[in-house]
Amino acid sequence: MLKIEHINSGYGKTRIIHDVSLHIAPGEIVSVIGRNGVGKSTLMKTIIGLNGLDSGEILFDGKHVSKMKAHQRARLGMGYVAQGHGILSSLTVEDNIKMGMDINSKGMIQARFDQVYEYFPRLAERKTQIAGTMSGGEQAMLSIARVLVGQPKIILLDEPSEGVQPNIVHKIGEIVELICKEFDLTVLLVEQHMGLIQQVSQKSYVMDKGVLIAELTKEQLNDSNIIKQYLTV
Amino acid sequence: MSLFGILYQFSDSFTFLILAALGLAIIFGMMGIINLAQGEFIMVGAYATTIIINQGFPYPVGILGGALAAALLGFVMDRLIISHLYQRVLDSVVATWGISLVLSEGMLQLFGPSMQSVSMPLGSVSIDGSKYSVYKLLLTLLAIGVVILIYLLFTKTEFGRKARATMQSRDISESLGVNTKAVYSETFVIGSALAGLTGALYAPTMTITPTMGNNFMVQSFVTVMCGGANPILGSVLSGGVLGLVNSTLSVTISAFFGKIGLLIITIIIIRVLPTGFTGLIEKTGARRRR
Lengths: 233, 290
Known about the structure:
Chain A has helices spanning 40-48, 70-75, 93-98, 109-119, 121-125, 136-148, 166-183, 194-200, 218-221, 224-231, and strands at residues 2-11, 14-24, 29-33, 53-60, 63-64, 78-81, 154-158, 186-190, 203-208, 211-217. By secondary structure, chain A is α/β, with parallel strands linked by helices. Chain A has a single domain (2-86, 153-231), classed as P-loop containing nucleotide triphosphate hydrolases (Rossmann fold, 3-Layer(aba) Sandwich), CATH 3.40.50.300. The longest helix of chain B is centred in the N-terminal third of the chain and has 29 residues, at 3-31.
């Protein structure tokens, strides 16, 4: 589904991502873990195309997308949920969801709308509410609902637990697992909340200083000694 | 002066401010481009309209032609220059100032220092012993119609939703499949067309010269500044308040004091409401929600 080969990227002359390669098979939920500021979000922005690629290759669904702009990658079926949820705060909930329609924009949109509102009944109740006035948890749900409505093939989830109450984080994990099954989705998750990672990830890459230093299985993710080894400063 | 006379003065002032500011406000509010060539786009609209009407075409065709000529110019300018300057406020000031010089000098070379104007259509109507231009009354209705159309375009259509989303976050919109460059380009063409429409509508009321755009620039900028971030609501509120001050002073003292009053009230508004009228409305709304 997503194949990243030796990519390097950063901001201007400052290189953040160094020679990163990773593969995600269809239907997998894969996470990238690491401490603050190691380049996880930069990696996500590079994959979706919001951050320039210095070198390397990104293949999505068998297509070379490295030279494509972000909106072109989105239209191929790449859904991106930004860090902090990326809600368009001045738009209503419904207008935010409609913004997702251009992702992989082909047919069955109304049916997908109804389905998304079934999964997130709270959003259906608040269609006309200004999105910026919602709680962190509701904004997280809205950001996921927004990409779902566009029928993506993969979702790049950048720290969905950020700004969300701890008791809602587990609920987000359940939603991620559920939509993966129901919508036949692949997910690349960047997260710092270990509970969420252990709940949903089938495998995980560990990132440090812009480099992927290890690949962990689901079993290894549940081993606190291994996690300590990689995530403590 | 009769009540109708006072209302006429107010609507004349309000219409001028709204039409002069709307295109500028949309381009600045949506794209972060300060278009110093706005006056020249208005001038191009006026020239195109005058030429078309002088060729024997009816006024509506001339007005449409003026708006289209400015839209076409806006499209070309966007492709050649503006598209490289999106969200670069200071660079856009310099570039559009250059465009304004080229356009006014170009018109001077092409058509000379002035062009034969067309007469104001529709005649006048006499109320309480005073005569009022029917065309200027119609202009107010047209300005209200234009504001409503633009409001509907930006709030009820897919393009409007994408434009508002792009205005708020280019990156998020792009990641949701929106070609933000195309949205900016279309917005610039709409802003240019509105400037052209303004020139077209005012062509029968003014002397057509290459520098006629200057008559609109000060008023359009102060209206946009007082209006704040929301281009449509801001322009309407700002046009209303500034128009009221301008028309009251023009009627009670003189047109000169009307202009002085406009600038003084602008200074006061910017001092008291640095984010303009729409900033005040947003703050009040946020307070109510808490």
